[in-house]
Amino acid sequence: MSLVSMRQVLDEAAKGGYGVGAFNVNNMEQIQSIMEAARETKSPVIVQASRGARAYSQDRFLYHLMLAATEIYPEIPTVLHLDHGNSVETCKSAIDMGFTSVMMDGSLMPDGKTPSSFEYNVDATRRVVEMAHEKGITVEGEIGCLGGIEDGHGAGLDGLAHLTDPDQAVEFVEKTGLDALAIAIGTSHGAYKFTSKPTGATLKMDVLIKIHQRLPNVHLVMHGSSSVPNDLQDIINQYGGKLKPTWGVPVEEIQLGIRNGVRKINVDTDNRLAITGAIRKVFAEKPEEFDPRSYMKPAREAMKKVVALRMTQFGQAGHAGDYAPISLAEMAKHYAAQPVLV
Ligand code: G3H
Ligand code: 13P
Ligand code: ZN
Question: How far apart are CA 224 and CA 83, in angstroms?
Answer without folding.
Answer: 12
